[in-house]
Design a protein that fits this description.
alpha+beta, OB fold (Dihydrolipoamide Acetyltransferase, E2P), DNA polymerase, domain 1, 6-stranded mixed beta sheet, 4 helices, about 20% helix, about 25% strand
Length: about 180
């Protein structure tokens, strides 16, 4: 496109070039395809993030280190969304080695299989970090979340009351099932 700008003293010629778009890269997954993936990170919404050939796949209800079999439900230009079909392996948190010669188990000894850090992460939108913030506010379980007042909790967490209300409703539904 060519554009002429006329001023009192001169005529300026400006040329606008169109950007050339590259064709979209082929996606390594298709809707309905089943894959085995390892969850590498957790998204802001609390979904697990896996990658296949550097293509991001969001998997709700998973934790970092989980090896799961997933079915792709949606493919967008830069990411895909999948549902968990089965769990292949769950990575447990590190436990200290048992010392030789120690036969008695004291009350301070950590359990051999560590407990999940919180059950709050089953609620959509609550990841590990958000669960830790909820724990600091006195919400340690789904039952606690269901019993909490949305306005009070939203003020403590400094997030929208609408989001907290969704969590509380989901917690109540989870307790019904």
């Amino acid at each position: 496109m060519l554009l002429y700008i006329v001023t009192n003293k001169s005529v300026k010629k400006m040329v606008f070039e169109r950007r050339i778009r590259r064709p979209p890269l082929p996606k390594p997954v298709k809707v309905g395809q089943e894959c085995e993936v390892t969850i590498e990170e957790i998204s802001r919404r609390g979904d697990g993030i896996a990658k296949i050939q550097n293509f991001v796949i969001f998997v709700p209800g998973t934790k970092v280190g989980d090896k799961v079999k997933v079915r792709i439900t949606r493919v967008a230009s830069r990411f895909a969304i999948a549902e968990k079909v089965s769990i292949m392996e769950i990575k447990l948190t590190h436990t200290p080695p048992i010392k030789e010669g120690v036969e008695e188990v004291t009350e301070k000894t950590a359990p051999a299989i560590p407990m999940q850090p919180t059950e709050l992460t089953i609620i959509e939108g609550i990841g590990v970090k958000r669960a830790e913030k909820l724990n600091s506010c006195g919400v340690n379980s789904v039952q606690d979340l269901a019993d909490f007042d949305s306005k009070e909790l939203s003020q403590k967490l400094q997030i929208s009351e609408k989001r907290v209300s969704k969590w509380i409703n989901e917690a109540k539904n989870a307790l019904k099932n």
